[in-house]
Each structure stands twice: as structure tokens, then as C-alpha cells.
Amino acid sequence: MEAVLDIDRLCVRRSGKLVLNNLTLEILGARVTGLLGASGSGKSTLMRCMVGVQRIDSGTITIMGISAGAKELRRKVGYVSQSPAVYLDLTVLENLDYFRSIFSLPYSRLREVVDTVSLAGTQKQLVSSLSGGQRARLSLAIALLPSPSLLVLDEPTVGLDPLLREELWNYFHELAKQGCTLIVSSHVMDEAERCDDLVLLRDGKIMFHSTPATLKASTETDNLDSAFLALAKRAKSEF
């Protein structure tokens, strides 16, 4: 498999602080890669770099050979931030139809994404009346509209019930089977187990990048909670 995303010696400062420190990373296509790390580790900043909305100080980041943020990638990269990017004074359907028109997509695409994220029955509701989890699902539906090749999801299942989380993760892997590359940040260890690959950040640097099975083997543990703890202790002692 070829790399879809290639990051080389990336450095980012925010408010004078070095948030990403000479970070180099290669993400393979058609896989679900989990991005994990404690608060302040640089996960959200790295994701913003991937979609081209974060100013970088040095280094490069390319997606399918094109510089992140380029016009050519607008239809190919989908992004769901932690804060739902939706219009509160519009209905669910009006939000979706607005973005559908931007991408010049057929109206039938609305029904497909509504069903995918289990928002059927809410189309006529104002977004301001939705729960936090419903707003998060609407943001995901909007990102899915153009059928992106790369989908960057910043904690997409926060606040969702276990059944819907299960359905979404099954859908994420179905997308990967269809050729989509997904990068999903999370702080929930059972979700890390669902990923094909894991990237663990600490203080803007990569502590680990491989499969969940490799992580457990390298730390001689039988679960990811113990593996992450062992890895963090090892990194702290080396520091």
C-alpha cells in the first residue's frame, strides 16, 4: 500500500510554544489509523495541519502528493472537528442541503448520509434543538457528503451511545474497505483496539506508530491500557 499522507520534519508553534516538534509520519491508504495522546500532546494541531487550516513553521505535509490545504484537495479531504461545524439557526436538512449545493451533489446524497449517521427523523429540526451527540453526527454527515478519499475525525464518537459508536466504527471500516483512509483521534482504549494502526503522541513527538498487536507485544502486555501506561513510563524514564 502507498502512503496517502506524508509528513516530513513538521514543526508548529502556537503562542510561542513548540506544539509539534520535528514530526515525521507516513500514513498508509485504505486503513483506519488511530491518533492518541494526552490533552496537549498535539493531536488536534496535527489534524489541523493535515487539512491545511494550521499555519506551520517548518517542514512539509502532503496528501496524495499535493500540499495540504491546496484547492485540489477540497473534495478529497473531509474533516470533523471536536466542535460541530454546523449552523444552529438552520434545520438538519438545510445544513446538509447547503453543503450539498457547494459540492454540486445530487439531492439523493442527503438521504444516504442521514441514514449513515442515524439522523432520520430529525431533518426538519433546528440544529439548536439537537443534542450534542446529534450535532456531532450532523458534522460527520456533512464531511461524508463528497465521499472523501481522506477522512480526518477529531474524537467523532464523544457523547454517543454505545450502539451508535459500534455502528459508526463498523462504517469507518467499511469506508476503509472501499479505499478511504481514516485518521481518528480518541482517548478511549476500546476504540484504539478497533484501529488498523496507532500513532501515539507525547509533547508533540511520536512515541509509537504501528499496529495495536505490535504495541502490546513490544510492551509485553495483553491490553492497550497497560501497553500505553508501560510506554508512557518508558518514555518518562528516557526523558
Determine Rg (CA atoms, Å).
Answer: 18 Å
Overall 3D form: globular
Question: Roughly what is the average pLDDT, rounded to an integer?
Answer: 93
What is the CATH H-level superfamily of the largest domain? P-loop containing nucleotide triphosphate hydrolases
Cα end-to-end separation: 34 Å
Q: What name does the CATH topology of the largest domain carry?
A: Rossmann fold
Number of domains: 2
Q: What is the beta-strand fraction?
A: 25-35%
**CATH class value of the largest domain:** Alpha Beta
Specify the CATH architecture of the largest domain. 3-Layer(aba) Sandwich
How much helix is in the residues? 25-40%
Number of helices: 8
Spatial ordering of strands, largest sheet: 6-7-8-3-9-10
Give unreliable regions as ranges. Answer: none
Largest sheet report:
6 strands, mixed
- Which sequence of SSEs, written as H and E, runs from N to C? EEEHEEEHHHEHEHEEHH
How many E-type strands? Answer: 10
Main structural class: alpha/beta
